[in-house]
Design brief:
217 residues, mainly beta, seven-stranded antiparallel sheet, elongated
Length: 217
């Protein structure tokens, strides 16, 4: 007489005394696949294959590099994050908006960093927590320094941080929540008014950084 698996998943396990039944065996294997980590090329391939998903199903999307799960009514993207930064000092001219050269990643779950373009690209639409940081060398005088994040060239509300310069280095940091579409290019801009060109600083090898955390869709 058949029983169910020892993990409480409802998979039928035939007993040695049961008559051979290839159909029952195949159904058991198919049920096990549906409760495993499935893999698909992208969301479209997942939708085509799983026309009647069941709550608890989990699937990897290779193109998007995302884990997803079905909550009973929709496919939900699991959280992912990134930390990308500028690894070298950069000269920012006086009173000139300058794109910061973000060129390195410590963590980048979805491989969104584009070094030539100086941006990180969103893989899916949703709510993101973004933290921007830039460090300036001492200027020997006053003047305003400020930085902000952009969504395809448009400033993201709440992302701008600023400070008055001084004879010591200045570090600025700002965190915001943004509702972003898929495929958006996130860049950092900076401007300073010290009276001449001013360099970003590199304490710990990081002149500026963007920390990204995906919250939910």
């Amino acid at each position: 007489m058949s029983t169910t698996d020892a993990y409480g998943q409802g998979i039928q396990v035939a007993a040695l005394t049961d008559a051979p039944n290839a159909q029952v065996l195949a159904q058991g294997l198919a049920a096990a696949v549906g409760q495993s980590n499935m893999r698909f090329t992208n969301a479209a391939a997942r939708a085509a294959a799983l026309t009647s998903p069941v709550a608890g199903m989990r699937a990897w999307l290779a193109t998007e590099k995302l884990w997803t799960y079905y909550d009973g009514s929709a496919w939900i993207v699991e959280s992912f994050s990134a930390f990308v930064y500028a690894s070298a000092t950069q000269s920012v001219p006086h009173n000139t908006t300058t794109t910061i050269n973000i060129n390195t990643a410590i963590l980048d779950d979805t491989s969104g960093l584009n070094v030539p373009g100086k941006y990180w690209q969103t893989p899916v639409a949703g709510k993101y927590r973004l933290t921007a940081m830039v460090s300036w060398v001492a200027s020997g005088g006053g003047g305003w320094r400020t930085m902000w994040l952009n969504d395809n060239g448009v400033q993201i509300p709440g992302s701008q941080g600023g400070a008055v310069g001084a004879n010591v280095g200045t570090l600025q940091e700002r965190t915001c929540i943004a509702n972003l579409a898929a495929g958006r290019q996130i860049t950092m801009s900076a401007v300073q008014q010290s009276g001449g060109a001013l360099n970003t600083d590199v304490p710990g090898g990081t002149a500026a950084s963007i920390q990204i955390e995906f919250l939910h869709t």
